[in-house]
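Intended use. Records like the one below are meant for learning the mapping from a protein sequence to its folded structure. Do not use them to infer anything beyond what is encoded.
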Amino acid sequence: MRKAIVLLSGGLDSATTLAIARAEGFTSYALTFAYGQRHEAELAAAKKVATALGAKTHQVMQIDLAAFGGSALTDPAIAVPKSRRAEEMAQGIPVTYVPARNTIFLCFALAWAEVIGAFDIFIGVNALDYSGYPDCRPEYIAAFEQLANLATASGVEKKGKFVVHAPLIHLSKAEIIQRGLALGVDYAITLSCYDPDPKGNPCGACDACQLRSKGFRENAMADPGARLG
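Structure written out for the chain above:
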């Protein structure tokens, strides 16, 4: 079986992505980041998801993006936006954007991939229901894949071709949920909220919660992860 690094936050999208990697026959090495985010409850969710979906190993990397701040997810002085209308979420880049986060995460994934001899990296970015993040676009994924093959010994020596898989990139949240359910994802153990309470319960009002809730509503079902604590 081919090896793959799968970026795993513990949320709905990354859980579905891990399930897709498994369904496509990859041996998955799950990679999660404790990066100083305010929603650290997602780390516990990631551990549950990695176990439930059969990751061969689950690595949690400690990095401190909170030292830089610049995002509502890493700086407690910046409030997480709540109760925004759909048209507001569709415009501009929100303060929950963490500067260069996906690039940093993918670089770690690339380093681990080269060490274990993997040439496949999975990331659960989405260009439809994505709150305007620039590092969730198809052109970004294509650019990083090109970098991966130019910037590594494995790529330069033609030992293989790095491929960055973004299987959700053109799916709506409702379609992502449909795909995950078909693959047996238990969304009750996932957490998507940017600002959960101390017990890990989602706020229900941040952009991530609203997009998640919309996806389940469009599937005519309740969110099984609405209460986690």
